[in-house]
Amino acid sequence: MFMMNVFKSPIFRLSIGLSLLTCCILLTSDFLGLMPNAKKMELQSRKILVESLAVQFVSGMIPDRMNAAEGLIRALVDRNESILSMAIRKSDNLLAIQYGDHEKHWTKTLGEKSTASHVKVPIFNRGERWGALEVRFVELGKNGTTFFVNSFYSYVFLVFIVALVTYSLFLKRAMLELDPGGVIPERVSNALNTLSEGLLILDEKARIVFSNEFFRRRTGLPEILLVGKNISDLSWIKNSAEVESFEPPWESVIAGNKSPEGAEVRLNSNFDESLLFKVNATPIGGESEKIRGVIVTFNDVTELEMKNKKLSSALGQLKQGQEEIARQNKELKILATRDPLTGCLNRRSFFDGLKMLIKEAKEDQAPLSCIMLDIDHFKFVNDNHGHAVGDKVIKIVVKILIKVSRPNDLIGRYGGEEFCVILPNTSVDVASKVAERMRMEIECCKVTAPNGEFNVTSSFGVTALASYDMKPELLVDQADKGLYVAKENGRNRVELWVSEDGECGAEHGAEHGAEHGDEGAVYDNQNDEIQDKSLLEETAVECDDNEIRENNGEVNDVDVASIIAGNSLALPTEELNISEDDHEGVDRESESECISDRLLMHDRIFQAIGRARRYETKIAILLLDIEEVRRINNAMGISVGDKFVKSICKRIKGTLRNTDSISVVGVPEVLFSLSQINSDELAILLPDIDDDELVVHVVDRIFSVLEAPSFIDGNELYLNGSIGVSIFPDDGDDSDALIASASDAMQEARQSGGRNNFQFASSDINKRANSRLVLESALHKAIELEEFVVYYQPKVNIFSGVISGMEALVRWEHPERGLVPPDEFIPLAESNGLISGITDRVISMVCNQLRVWQAAGYPFVPVAINLSPVEFRDENLARKIIKKVEKAGLWPKSIELEITESTVMEDTDVAIKTIYEFNNAGISLSLDDFGTGYCSYNYLKKFSVDKIKIDRSFITNFTELSTDAAIVNSMITLAKNLGLQVVAEGVETEEQLRFLRDLQCDQVQGYLISRPVSAEEATKLIANPSIIRRKTFVGMSGGSGGTMADKREVPAEIIGMLNKAP
Q1: What is the chain's alpha carbon radius of gyration, rounded to the nearest angstrom?
Q2: In sequence order, what E strands does 168-262 have?
Q3: CATH entry 3.40.605.10 includes domain 338-565
Q4: Predicted confidence band at 505 (pLDDT cuts at 50, 70, 90)?
Q5: What is the mean pLDDT of residues 553-558?
Q6: Domain boundaries, the chain
Q7: What pairing do the DSSP bridges indicate for beta strands 418-424 and 522-524?
Q8: CA neighbours within 13 Å on the CB side: how many for 432?
Q9: pLDDT in tens, 588-637
Q10: What's the half-sphere exposure (Cβ side, CA atoms, 13 Å) at 365?
């Protein structure tokens, strides 16, 4: 069928005709003699060949060199198909040389004449005819191969074939150029012109073969400019970002790829109008056939785009208006809830928050204290320095109040120069000390005014909640009475006011040291253990306009009101517009409490953000979904729902306040705030966060307490909670943004399905949290499967080179991850309470190893074990370890315990008791990481230790930095004077070793001596003490001072310091 279509094609018929015409022209030319004669050319070539041979033979090859002539004749006959035979015939008619059966092929009747096939050429020698050269050629025209190859007719046939192909291609291209649209039947083109969208038909080379009327009319391009033109030559508009990556849909189809649907392209029309089209491209040809073209449709969406732009512009204006309304609403809320000058809560909002704090104190049975302060002689400041200076003084005071108070405390401007601070969960004695610190910091801040400098003083009244039924106004009134007494007694002091019944803090009065006395009795706490006033005066610096200079010289802007305006902490609009559906089944009192809780939570978030910015820490917002409460309200009543929420809140507060369940090294307690900000949401604020992992552990503890049911009025109720977490500053910079981010994360946690899910707003933190949970699960199994091993690092006497002890270092051999670094799993074990199990395992393995060394008769080598600060919270720690050592039958001095300064910082009383028990049992104690804490020397005075270990941070650079060298020298000198041994950690170079020897350090430990090794390797070191001894004395040429060359390499400052060392 295909061949029949080809034969019927006009192009093929025209090509046949033109090819035949070309052949006729060639034949006519041949007939007229215009074409070259092949026979004549052949005869001429034969003539030349024979004459050339004759000349060679005449030149002397005959007759003297007959052998050479015979070889030449043989070669010519063999290599030339047109020669049948060849011979040299003498004049006596005898053949001298012949080849190719010459007698058979040669016709003798010809005589001396030559023909086209018989050629005879005479040969002369010395002027006489010697003989003749006879060559027998093939007859002209009788060789079929020669005829086919060299005949004129074969040439004509070849021309016919080539002409047929050439004319076909040429005519096809010519017809396409002359009328490309001719390939589309007229009835089809008429149908395509009725379409309401543009259409182009392209060939396989992206040339336009058809354009419908809509496309031509919309673009203003006539058909003559479109048909036959490559579609890429049209005026397409490309964005700068799309120049390299832009690939039109039709090119994708021609390349054999799938066309993207609804791709947008822009075309510049002849009317200088930018048109936007949605383009779809469809290939022409079946799936198995080669693509012969593309049909491209153009849906004009230019007008739709213009309308969308107008709508977007209108929407943008509406959003701007909405944002402006929201901003003004926030400002109005700020004006309604906050003092515009200081940003503190105004009186009304302050009492609303205080009401909620009293309610929380009652629920938690916790103390609550109130501080009232007044700026002394404030009228004098305004009269003599002006109101601008007076405003600056007020801002300075507020800045100090915020700095000293905690994120959970409530600060309000009571009026004029009076302020009130509420301290929840704080006894009256602690509140008095806080007030004293505020007073001293205010006193030490100098204010610069146009007419000179002056100091500001303030008076304080402190009281505590006497009864949980006390009204907020009465509590503030009691503090005001204390303030009045402070003013009457000379100002610039702190006075404690006791209620009329002689109690201060209800049943907490006796517990916190409040004595019963007469009505209106006043107690002076000005001489409590507070920082020395003279020290504060020495570090005080001037305060310029609009800023406070802290004691460290840091400049901080105190325009608190502007900060609040930029980071609105008033209630979001959507939270105040509470619909009826949101509170179906919730009474007005609960609704009011939620609003008050939200206000209090927003204020606490604001204070926490301020602290986080100041101290470069983080805060976390946890949003707990309690949606089940609605169903409980509908099914069992509002009272049951309220009791259930209170039960949940109480359990969460209990677990977060329990330092045994939230174990963080260096953090004695986890600060938090919990509020019910909606009918179905609880918000938990975690301020002063240094590590995201603490948040994960808090979430884990919350879920653990929610697993147990709540029994309310005989009903067993469960809460399937979902928690969303946001972190400042990663997920927002104000309370609204943080709560919104936490809400979004909570929705994701809820949609993930299952029970007790949580999500961080940040995906990176989510990954880390999930990794932590996986590692925590593996850590539980590691203790059961005994995957922990102990490595030993020697401590060496610097003078004798003898191993004076070992430090036991725990390693976790994870079956998949290999050795897990201690800094990954130790903090995790400390936070989830597994550290005690790991320590027990380490002590057991060390005791077993010591018994092995003792049984083998090796020298006595004590082993040091590190104790975690978390373990020191256990009052039975000493008894447990002593019992293990006694059970193992070891001498108490065989075990040495290393503690850090953070170990004893959390609870000094417990630490002293535990250390005393170790001392009585004969177990040695070392103070590890010495010099890195805040009061290392103070701990040496309080605690009985045998050694101090200088932290590696001082050893690393002390040979290069004279300051580090001086510090190390002072540590060693102090320890020697106190009768303590000194161990230097992190010794890695010979130079460090030499200088520690010069400084009279007792022992060294580090990679220069030995890395931590397995028990087997440690045994080899003990059995072969020369190994360690050689490393200890490497590079030492004599004495403790080293060589002169060694000393010349040392900086002069260090040598001078060493010469002065005792």
Answers
A1: 52
A2: 198-203, 208-211, 236-237
A3: no
A4: very low
A5: 39
A6: 2-35+152-177, 38-142, 184-300, 338-565, 573-761, 781-1060
A7: unpaired
A8: 25
A9: 445 555 566 777 788 788 888 888 888 888 999 999 887 778 778 888 88
A10: 3
* Domain range 38-142, CATH class: alpha beta
Residue appearing with tokens 């610097």: 798
Structure tokens that stand for 965 in this block? 């060298």
Burial class (CB in 10 A: 0-12, 13-18, 19+), 263: middle
Residue 1053 CA to residue 594 CA, distance in Å, equals 67
How far CA 194 is from CA of 191, 216, 299, 929, in Å, comes to: 6, 13, 14, 88
Q: In the prediction, which pLDDT does 60 show? A: 53
**Residue 318 identity (one-letter amino acid):** L
Contact, 710 vs 719, CB < 8 A? yes
Fold of 781-1060: TIM Barrel (3.20.20)
Which architecture does CATH list for 184-300? 2-Layer Sandwich (3.30)
**Cis peptide leading into residue 407 (ω within 30°):** no
Length of the chain: 1062
The whole-model pTM stands at 0.47
What residue type is assigned to position 970 of the chain?
Answer: S
| 580 compared with 981, residue with greater pLDDT | 981
Domain 573-761, what architecture?
Answer: 2-Layer Sandwich (3.30)
pLDDT at 239: 66
Between CA 27 and CA 153 the distance in angstroms is 9
Sequence letter at residue 627 = E
Domains 338-565 and 573-761 fall in the same CATH topology: yes
Q: What are 983-1028's pLDDT values in tens digits? A: 999 898 888 888 888 889 999 999 888 999 999 999 999 988 888 8
Taking a C-beta distance cutoff of 8 angstroms, is the pair 699, 624 a contact? Answer: no
- Side chain identity at 243, as an amino acid letter? V
